[in-house]
Specification:
Helices cover 29% and strands 27% of the residues. With 150 residues, the chain is an alpha+beta fold. It has a six-stranded mixed β-sheet with strand order 1-2-3-4-5-6, sandwiched between helices.
């Protein structure tokens, strides 16, 4: 599915979009995109990047990873990061990115989308709740293992 809003296009990016993804290094922040890893990411069907393109330029995105499940309910999609350039925030870009994500997930029979954010990140929480996300009220703790230190 491709959603359009004026000159804006919302869709999943692929290998042909490498130059657009590399431009995100300048537009969003430095040390964000490595060309070799971006090429591998875009070629992997289990890696997802859904973006809002304004005249071909990425102005908003969500990227993450499709996770295989052992049961027959369907895979899950973990969203690692969501971003919209400041000058395009509060214009519905984030909501439409999630609409595209949800439509693509339905097509692929992905049963759930999940992500993590801090409670203090009110703009993100507001976006996720406005598109149907439900905050988990659990006592989970996240552990990270830095294998480079071993």
């Amino acid at each position: 599915m491709r959603c359009e809003m004026g000159n804006r296009e919302f869709r999943r990016l692929n290998e042909e979009d490498l130059s657009r993804v590399l431009q995100m290094e300048k537009d969003f922040r430095s040390n964000f995109i490595c060309e070799e890893n971006a090429r591998i990411f875009l070629a992997n069907p289990m890696c997802w990047m859904v973006a809002c393109l304004d005249e071909g330029r990425v102005i908003g995105f969500a990227y993450g990873y499709e996770l295989n499940r052992l049961n027959d309910i369907g895979n899950m999609l973990y969203i690692h990061e969501v971003g919209v350039l400041p000058e395009y925030q509060q214009q519905g870009v984030g909501k439409l990115i999630f609409a595209e994500l949800k439509a693509l997930c339905k097509q692929k029979r992905i049963c759930r989308i999940f992500l993590f954010t801090e409670k203090s990140n009110q703009p993100a929480c507001g976006l996720y709740e406005s598109v149907g996300g439900e905050a988990a009220h659990v006592d989970d703790v996240a552990y990270f293992f830095n294998l480079l230190d071993i």
